[in-house]
Amino acid sequence: MVKELLDPTNMKIVMYLMNNEYATKKDLEKVVRDISQASLYRRLKSLVKNQILEIYSKEQKRGTYEKTYTLKYNPNDRLGKVVENGNPKEIYEIFYTFIMAQLIDFDNYLKKEKFNLKEDRVGFRSFPLTLTDIECDEMNKEIATILKKYMDINPKKNSRLRKLSITSLPIEEEN
Question: Is 114 left (phi over 0), alpha (psi -120 to 50) or beta?
Fold first, then answer.
């Protein structure tokens, strides 16, 4: 299930449904314009199979059924429960999947015939910050506000799907 949620296109679908209670395939075609209808259909089928989405209703239109999808549950709740339970193995598996998704995405990027990190605005960097818990919370709220602004932008003709991933964790300072 976590693997499904780490896929940027699937995450767009989930994010749309987190903000809109229901959606048809036609609604979602507008959200993920960069994939074919067949690919969208396969993704929806997989998201239903993995119990991330469920079919809310089926309406017959011109000999076929138009399905309306909704979230089966908020995926953040599921991840929150795993984190809350504190099972190191489950948490590690989630983080491992996250990191592997990053490596796969970067590997696929480097396999392109032509790539240019500067032109494509590719970047990766660690920023060691010395913050109190309150300052860290404030920073995370500010980042969330900025991300929300850009996640709500409707794709334009020259838009490209981009993936921004952030990891934050305390590290032990060495003497």
Answer: beta
Dist CA 160 CA 120 (whole Å): 10
Mention every residue, 6+ apart, whose C-beta is less than 8 A from residue 1.
50, 51, 52, 75, 78
pTM: 0.55
Q: In this structure, what CATH number is given to the domain that contains residue 25? A: 1.10.10.10
42: containing domain: 2-71
Does 129 fall in a domain?
Answer: no
Q: Is residue 135 part of a domain?
A: no
**One-character DSSP codes across 70-121:** EESS-HHHHHHHHHHHT-HHHHHHHHHHHHHHHHHHHHHHHTSSS--TTTTT
Model confidence over 111-162: pLDDT tens digits? Answer: 888 989 999 999 888 888 999 999 999 999 999 999 888 887 877 888 887 8
Confirm whether 37 is domain-assigned: yes
Would you say residue 59 lies in a domain? yes
Question: How many domains does the chain divide into?
Answer: 1
